[in-house]
Amino acid sequence: MKETKWWLRDGARFKHVKRPYDIDTVKRLRGSVKIEYSLAKIAAEKLWDKLHTKKYVRALGALTGNQAMQQAKAGLDSVYLSGWQVAGDANDSLQMYPDQSLYAVGSVPTIVKRINNTFQRADQIQTM
């Protein structure tokens, strides 16, 4: 809990966020089961570090796990998933839409899951 208090109060990420409640209230309401999303946490921490230590963060758009993996192998700092590309070419509705978020709500999470699965599999192979 000390770590959470520090992160919310002193951490740079939430420096300008005002909260009308305290950490004890949050702890009481969240229950006892701690849910963690390992891939999201690791990726967010890496991106946060890059955004604060590099002059810029290089990225190209990827619609498939293989494209993302090739970008990582080429040394790019991050992978970008473009909403307009999903609308036009890779949505779950199998239609072409304008860039107005008209496609099925699960379209982007599906692609992110494919990309994450590709990175997980590459990691499994590399650590065998």
From TrEMBL:
Any one Gene Ontology BP term: carboxylic acid metabolic process
Entry-linked InterPro entries: Isocitrate_lyase, Pyrv/PenolPyrv_kinase-like_dom, Pyrv_kinase-like_dom_sf
A GO term for molecular function: isocitrate lyase activity
Pfam families listed in its UniProt record: ICL
Keyword set includes Lyase: yes
Keyword list, A-Z: Lyase
Keyword Nucleotide-binding applies: no
Protein name per the record: Isocitrate lyase
Taxonomic lineage from the root: unclassified sequences, metagenomes, ecological metagenomes
